């Protein structure tokens, strides 16, 4: 096992390249994930997210570039390294006739210092299903089981590939709380997601990847200079129509409108571009 200092990033990637035949999936990516942060990878279908993550997990061979994950090259890492890394792939969650409790207990044996299976099952919200056979679980419950298997080994670094696909809104919120708890306990988390609100809710920083290349790395708040983007003020006029104005000085505009009304302005809203607006512009789909 390699020794890491706290200052060393959890993940350092430089010039990463991977092609499948003529199809270049990852075209020279540089990336750094700090220890303890929640890092989200966003990008359209086929952008290269899963390929990148699978290289970081040691499941895929790269064509070029250097990769260090928890101080080791994942392609040549040993079992001790693997025990420090938790992985939640895109959808497995079914283990024939075994129960949830049996599966989690079985996986716990693969790790040198696993968490308590019952506690982990409760943590992912499956306590009531501990004795249920996995093939009877709903889609969202199977994903929860995947997450349980990803964290049973008490990983330092957790990879989550589209973890909340198929979750209902309540389950998604519960999952976010779980990720925040893990993060607060010091786990470094890398997640890919198609849900912009998920990235916004969880990520300290995010990377946008398109056609195998990084488009941006930023905090969710600062992406595309969103904080300083023009605001849109809208309100209802005396005639009942909706008026809408884009402005870089929304406070002054609202004051001006309010003065004209001498009271509450009907239907008043002030909005900035959402993370999704900025993201869609960035990947060129607008
Ligand atoms: N095993 C494979 N063999 C051949 N081509 C592949 C393979 N895996 C991925 N690709 C191709 O590499 C590119 C990147 O795919 P990847 O799965 O990394 O994208 P992604 O960003 O994870 O997409 P999604 O959001 O749909 O999961 C795509 O063009 C895909 O078709």
TrEMBL record:
GO biological process: response to antibiotic
A Pfam family per the record: ABC_tran
GO CC annotations, alphabetized: plasma membrane
Subcellular location as annotated: Cell membrane
Keyword Translocase: yes
Entry keyword Isomerase: no
Keywords carried by this UniProt record: Antibiotic resistance, ATP-binding, Cell membrane, Membrane, Nucleotide-binding, Translocase, Transport
GO molecular function, one term: ATP hydrolysis activity
Limits of the ABC transporter domain: 11-236
Major location (coarse): membrane
Secretion signal span: none
Topology of this chain in the membrane: Peripheral membrane protein
Superkingdom as given in the UniProt entry: Bacteria
PANTHER family associated with the record: ABC TRANSPORTER ATP-BINDING PROTEIN (PTHR42711:SF16)
Name the record gives this protein: ABC-2 type transport system ATP-binding protein
Native species: Asanoa hainanensis
């Amino acid at each position: 096992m390699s020794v890491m200092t706290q200052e060393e990033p959890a993940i350092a990637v430089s010039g990463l390249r991977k092609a499948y035949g003529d199809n270049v999936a990852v075209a020279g990516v540089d990336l750094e994930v700090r220890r303890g942060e929640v890092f989200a990878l966003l990008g359209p279908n086929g952008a290269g997210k899963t390929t990148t993550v699978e290289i970081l997990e040691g499941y895929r061979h790269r064509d070029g570039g250097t990769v260090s994950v928890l101080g080791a090259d994942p392609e040549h890492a040993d079992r001790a390294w693997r025990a420090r890394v938790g992985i939640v792939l895109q959808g497995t969650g079914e283990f024939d006739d075994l129960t949830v409790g049996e599966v989690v207990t079985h996986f716990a044996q693969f790790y040198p210092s696993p968490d308590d299976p019952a506690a982990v099952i409760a943590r992912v919200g499956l306590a009531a299903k501990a004795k249920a056979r996995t093939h009877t679980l709903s889609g969202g419950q199977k994903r929860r089981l995947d997450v349980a298997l990803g964290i049973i080994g008490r990983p330092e670094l957790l990879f989550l590939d589209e973890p909340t696909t198929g979750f209902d809104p309540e389950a998604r919120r519960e999952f976010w709380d779980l990720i925040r708890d893990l993060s607060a306990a010091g786990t470094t988390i890398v997640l890919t997601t198609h849900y912009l609100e998920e990235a916004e809710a969880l990520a300290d920083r995010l990377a946008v990847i398109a056609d195998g290349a990084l488009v941006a790395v930023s905090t969710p708040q600062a992406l595309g200079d969103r904080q300083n983007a023009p605001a849109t003020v809208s309100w209802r006029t005396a005639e009942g129509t909706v008026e809408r104005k884009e402005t870089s000085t929304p406070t002054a505009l609202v004051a001006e409108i309010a003065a004209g009304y001498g009271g509450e302005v009907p239907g008043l809203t002030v909005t900035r571009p959402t993370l999704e607006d900025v993201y869609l512009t960035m990947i060129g789909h607008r």
